[in-house]
Amino acid sequence: MSVNIFKDVTLRRKEILERVNPKNVEMAQGYLKYINISSFKKSTISTKIQMLLHFLDFIHNNLNDKLVTDVTVQEMEDYLLYVSKCGLKPSSIIAKMQVISVFYKYLINQGLTQFNPIYYIQKPHTLETKDNKHYLTSEQIETLKEKLEENGDLTLQVYAFFSLSTAARVTAVSSIRWEQIDFEKRMVYKVKEKFSNYCTLIFSDYVKDLLLKLRAEREHNKINDGGFVFYSPVRFYKDNSIEIRHLGSGTLCDWTHKIGAMVGVPDLTPHDFRRTACNLLLQKGGDIGITSLILHHKSIATTLHNYCNLDDDSFLLQYKDKFGI
Question: What would the CATH number be for the domain defined by 11-128?
Answer without folding.
Answer: 1.10.150
